[in-house]
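Q: Predict the assembly, please.
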Amino acid sequence: MVENEKDKSTSADKDDGTVLSEAELNTLLDAAPAPAASDPLQRAILDDFDRLYPQHAASADVSTEGFRKHGSIGARQWFSAIFSNVRLASARLGVGALAAVAVLGFSIGVVTNSAPGASSPSLAANSSALDEQEFALTYFTSTLSDAFSDTAFYAGEESLWRVE
Amino acid sequence: MAADKQTHPNHALHNSSRSNAEHNRAGHHGAGHHGAEHDDALIARAGRGDRLAASELVVRHTDKVMAVCYRLLNDRAAAEDVVQETFLKLWKNAGAWTPGKAQLSTWLYRVARNACVDRLRRAGREAPEDAAPERADQSPSAEAQLIAADRASTIEAALQALPARQREAIVLCHYQELSNGEAAEILGASVEAVESLLARARRTLKASLAPMREALTE
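A: Predicted assembly structure:
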């Protein structure tokens, strides 16, 4: 029905040579497309968006500034960072502590085993036992120190990851 | 609203003459492709500062808004300013957008159209006098480019010669493929008023562009 009316009006228009038909007018109008939005315009629009919604960029600036500008972060942030990595840190601490206890136990065993059997424990033997104890203590503290260093590293990495 | 789309001969002819008409209509309703995120969802994400969503909205809608602004202002620089203003308003209101209340494209057209009208009023004119339409020619040869540019220039001049309201109706209904109801909403007029504006505009254009009939056979 609509198509028939359209055909009638088109043929009527064509009979009159002074005006275009509907189809001819549509064809001509389509021959004049408007320009598309340019890339600089689209970039400008997105720049406006970035200015209105800067929160992500701002939070990134704060967390990285803490490390870079002041060289340290506050105690509260440290605790937060450490406890957020508690599984990693505790695993490392556990391994370190086990190793230290094993070495300590071994050295104490050596000292106690050698003492009763010896009629007069030599100075060298005592010295050796003391050296082992000192080594064990040094190893224990260095392992603890490494564990805390690792925690600190992961804390920093975690903060940077959160920035991402 | 759906009925006036069918009863107007413009759309029946127009849709049959365009291969991408279906795609464009889908775009008006928020998502042009299967699986594409709806405009409402994108606005919600943009309102939370999601730049990717904002980017997708820009890609989807800037060309269409630019087309409306350019047709109404006939000045590319001014049209770009209005497009930017329009999207700035969108970003500012994105957080308060109510899903399903209005189509984004309709909202954008209305904001852009109002900004264009304000500009024209401030400039104290209905249409710019220094109209030298810029065209992105796709013709292969220099001669063909000149012919196409000349033809487009003549058509543009005929459009600009229309009274502002008639031009707006043609731009929204023919070029943006909106229904008469959608155009009425944007123009703040009744559907009957839009139909009348369209009919008068097309009658005028049919007469003013009649000398170009031979160009159709080239």
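Chain B touches chain A through 55 residues (CB under 8 Å). Chain B is about 70% helix and 0% strand.
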